[in-house]
Amino acid sequence: MTSREPLSSEASHPSLAPPIAHLIEQLHKLPGIGPKTAQRLAYYLIRMPAEEAAALAQAIGSVKDRTTLCGRCRNITEADPCRICADLARDQTVLCVVQEPLDVLAIERTGVYHGLYHVLHGIIDPMRNIGPEDLHIRDLVARLTDEPIVEVVLAMNPTVEGETTAMYVRQLVAPLGRKVTRLARGLPVGGDLEYADDLTVARAFEGRQDF
């Protein structure tokens, strides 16, 4: 696992009231939140009107209680199947494989893709002890057996780990007789799909290649 920056002495100071220290500690666990940012967020929440704080707490609780994974594509959804899987107007023969649910949003914003998705929820990363068995790859293979998929589009991020995952998936999919393509190199190497602009993602889709 990657190391996390320790809380600063100020953030863990014994003079802090225990509820504040606990809040800072929990905020620090969020991705991209360092100790100083955790401190600032904690004090912002303290100054927030009570009704807004209650609404935020309710939203957090609601998203945990009311969301689940789509039994078909593994995207995060409130209803199973999800809206995309339930849309029979979408192309049922093309399946786009992505790393995370946020990647589905990035692709949908472009309006150029009208097929189905499969969300792996991660990538193969030996440095973090994440192997193929930790991802929804087995579900993907099962879908290719049960559904009339003709083309599988690999849309992993162009990183070392993304390439490793794409190669692994390709090795499993190719023997099943499905066409395997990948997004064109319109995406920057080392970049994340969710941060790419809409035009870049659209061009990458339009120029996808055999893999």
Provide structural commentary.
The structure is a single chain. The protein is an alpha/beta fold. The chain folds into 2 domains: 18-66, RecR Domain 1 (Helicase, Ruva Protein, domain 3, Orthogonal Bundle), CATH 1.10.8.420; 69-210, Dna Topoisomerase Vi A Subunit, Chain: A, domain 2. Helix content is 42%, strand content 11%. The protein has 8 helices and 7 strands. It has helices at 18-28, 35-47, 50-66, 83-86, 101-110, 137-146, 160-173, 198-206, and strands at residues 68-69, 76-77, 94-98, 116-119, 151-154, 179-182, 209-210. The strands form 2 sheets. The chain has a 5-stranded mixed sheet. Strands 1-2 form a two-stranded antiparallel sheet. Strand 5, helix 7 (160-173) and strand 6 form a beta-alpha-beta unit. Helix 1 (18-28) packs across helix 2. The longest helix is centred in the first third of the chain and has 17 residues, at 50-66. The chain is elongated.
